[in-house]
Specification:
Distance between the termini: 51 Å
Strand order of the largest sheet: 1-3-2
Mean pLDDT: 85
GO biological process, one term: negative regulation of DNA-templated transcription
Radius of gyration: 19 Å
Cofactor: Mn(2+); Fe(2+); Zn(2+)
Binding site for Fe cation: 121
Shape: flat
Protein name: Transcriptional repressor
CATH topology of the largest domain: Arc Repressor Mutant, subunit A
Helix content: 40-55%
Number of domains: 2
Number of helices: 6
Subcellular location: Cytoplasm
Structural class: alpha+beta
Low-confidence stretches: 1-15
CATH architecture of the largest domain: Orthogonal Bundle
Length: 160
């Protein structure tokens, strides 16, 4: 797909047309790499920079990894994406922003799923003391096994 194809796709009436407006609304210039990165993040929620890079490069082969990091940084600074950093994993980027959701992470395969705010017995989302900080958000990560990895582990554990 050429640069003009990416631009045409991102301005098409089937839903991707909002991408160019999304960039402009936060003061970012509309470029083919930025449009391709937004499309990649729509197709790959919770993607690391390498995943976004591979998707962008498939559409725009001359785009560098450094350029993708720059695009992701600009997106995060503008509030278009949220950067999450599960312990022991590369930073992940997601387009779901503006709410206080959390994440489930599989310890075996690294799969990440969104979890809406906890209800009932919840994690500490309001610190007992801010120590003078202006708290902007709380980040909660739940760790465990996804259904596929749990089933695989159970199958290995069963005697034959």
């Amino acid at each position: 797909m050429s640069t003009s194809d990416v631009t045409a796709s991102a301005t098409a009436p089937h839903g991707d047309g909002v991408l160019a407006h999304t960039l402009r609304d936060v003061g970012l210039k509309v470029t083919a790499p930025r449009l391709a990165a937004l499309l990649a993040l729509a197709e790959h929620p919770h993607a690391d920079a390498d995943t976004v890079f591979r998707a962008v490069q498939a559409e725009l082969p001359t785009t560098s990894l450094q350029a993708v990091y720059g695009v992701l940084g600009a997106f995060a600074d503008a509030g278009l994406v949220r950067r999450i950093e599960p312990a022991g994993s590369p930073a992940l980027y997601e387009r779901r922003v503006g709410d206080n959701h959390h994440h489930l992470v599989c310890r075996d395969c690294g799969r990440v799923e969104d979890v809406d705010c906890v209800v009932g017995e919840s994690a500490c989302l309001t610190p007992s003391s801010t120590h003078g900080f202006q708290v902007a958000e709380a980040e909660v990560t739940f760790w465990g096994r996804c259904p596929a990895c749990a089933a695989a582990a159970a199958a290995v554990a069963e005697p034959t």
